[in-house]
Structure formats: structure tokens, C-alpha cells
Amino acid sequence: MLNRILGAIVRAALVVSLIVMPSVFLPNVSGDSAQVIALIALFGAALTFFEYVSAYPGLVEFRDAPPFNRIRFGSLFVTVLLLTVIMQGTVDPSVLSVLVTAIGGLIGYVMDFQFSPVRLIIQLLPKDMPIDQVAMVRVAAGMSYLISLISLCIFYLALRLGNWPAKNGTFNVWINLPTFDPTAGGDVVARLTRDARVNIILGFLLPFLIPAVLKSAATLFGTITVENYQSLIWAVSAWAFLPASLFMRGIAMGRVADMIADKRRKTYANADFDHQPV
């Protein structure tokens, strides 16, 4: 019980540090914005603490199947951290900010080709926007998208080489998939496989769909601006993180479906062997 409480406290502290990071390191943050961010951070910390301190399922999927959530959180944390360093470098340059900006610029340039997600983000910007601001958005988009791809590769290696989630012992579907109801009807394996495919398809399409939706909404809400660095950081981070998260969720649910199907085959095989005539 003590280990569970300590783990919940550490996770809550990490969530707070993630949420407040841009407002702490970026200059010219208004008092009202700081108060709103502090309120959101407290809410996120409370939700995380009560989720992980409880022995019963809540809202977080694959809670007892590390490193699924650790990879997702680490991906978002690194993305927000590096984008904060890049934005801070525009006001107060440092060796680290110059290095990260240079790496992001190279990645953004490589990924900025026709019909790529980075190019679609660039096309959302006003045509009269200064070239340095366009370059900054390209740097942020390229860095975020690269981190999301790296997180997918790390999870795939953990799944294949680490035999996830079987290495953690018995996989409890009730705790790790609290929003999935096995008794809702239909075959569990078929439903898990269907949900896995839907998540993978959405994860693949979202980097292209989000810019298209934002471009359509620009006629109602106006074009995107990069004057607010906090908004830019969270928008670009969400654009890269959400598709990767859905992709990982789809892969994970497909893995669970394969485990259940394999368990069924072994059970049926043992039952047939036990009923063979002597």
C-alpha cells in the first residue's frame, strides 16, 4: 500500500511539472494565465493520484501494464520540454536552445515535403507571416512529429523484445481496459481486434485530418497565430501526441486480442487432449 501511495504521489508531481513547464520557463506569462494553469495542474494531479492510489479501475487504460503509459507520458513530456526550450531561445538564447533549434530545424526541413503532416501545418499559417515565425513552426512541428515516431518505435520494441504485457504476469482486462466491457455482446477477440484497427487507422489519419479541420475552421475563427508561445506548444504537442497515442493503443489492444485468442487455443487443445479415449 505504501509503494502504491508513493508511486501515485510521484506520478502526480510529474503531471504537475508537465502542465506548468511552459508557463514557468517562458517569459511574459500573465497572472490570469498562471492561475488557470495552476488550477489545471492541481486537477490533473488529483486525478492522477486517485487513479493510481486506488486498487480498482478508473479512467486510465493499461494502468498495471508498464511501460505503456510511461512511454506515452515520456513522449509528451519530452515534446513539451524541447518545444519550451525552443520558444525560450527566441527570447533568451542559450547553448541548449540553439542546439535544440538547430536539430529541430534540420528535422523540420527533411519532413517538409509535399502532402506531409509538417507541410500541412505550415500551410495553415497566414501567407503574410514573417519567415522567421514560419521557420519556428516548422521546427516545432518537425521535432514533435519525430518524438512521436520515436515513441512508437520504443513501444514496438518493448512489445516484441520485452514480450509486453505478458512479462508483467497475469493481464487483468478489467483493470487495464476499464472502458472496455467484455459482456457488452459479441466475441471479445473480434471486438478488441476491431477497436485496434479503428485506433490504428485514426492514428494514421489524424496528422492529416487535424490540419484539414483547422483550415476549414479558419473561416470562422480566423487564421492561426504564433504570438502566444504556450498555445503553440500545446497545439503542436497535441497534434503529434494524439495520433501516436491512438496508434499505440491500437497496437496494444491488438496484442491483448492475440493473447486471449492464444489462451483459448491452448485451453481447447488441453480439453480435447483430456477427453481423448485411453
UniProtKB/TrEMBL annotation:
Protein name from the UniProt record: Arginine/ornithine antiporter ArcD
Keywords: Membrane, Transmembrane, Transmembrane helix
Residues annotated as transmembrane: 12-30, 36-59, 71-89, 136-159, 202-226, 232-256
Native species: Celeribacter marinus
